[in-house]
Specification:
Radius of gyration: 17 Å
CATH class of one domain: Mainly Alpha
Distance between the termini: 37 Å
Structural class: mainly alpha
Largest sheet: none
CATH architecture of one domain: Orthogonal Bundle
Shape: elongated
Number of helices: 3
Length: 86
């Protein structure tokens, strides 16, 4: 069962949140916003939280990509090729 919106918007402890947890919370926020059952003020707070979660997820993905690049360079293996969705 999804958490109530107020629980998602409450300040979180400063412990690091995993990428998977951030993504799951972001998906819950999007679902609640799509339903349209919350007030404008709650929607704005949810949107702001979603933006912060998106930035956090993007940073985690960039860090992971950097680690992969470093490992590839250390092992003198092939470089990564850009992903194309064809």
């Amino acid at each position: 069962m999804p958490q109530p919106l107020f629980a998602l918007l409450m300040p979180k402890k400063k412990t690091p949140v995993s990428f998977e947890e951030s993504l799951a919370e972001l998906e819950q926020l999007v679902s609640q916003l799509e339903q349209g059952d919350i007030s404008l003020e709650e929607s704005l707070k949810a949107f702001e939280r979603g933006v912060n979660l998106t930035r956090s997820c993007q940073a985690a993905l960039q860090e992971a990509e950097q680690k992969v690049n470093i490992l590839l360079e250390k092992n003198h293996t092939q470089t990564l090729e850009p992903f194309t969705d064809e």
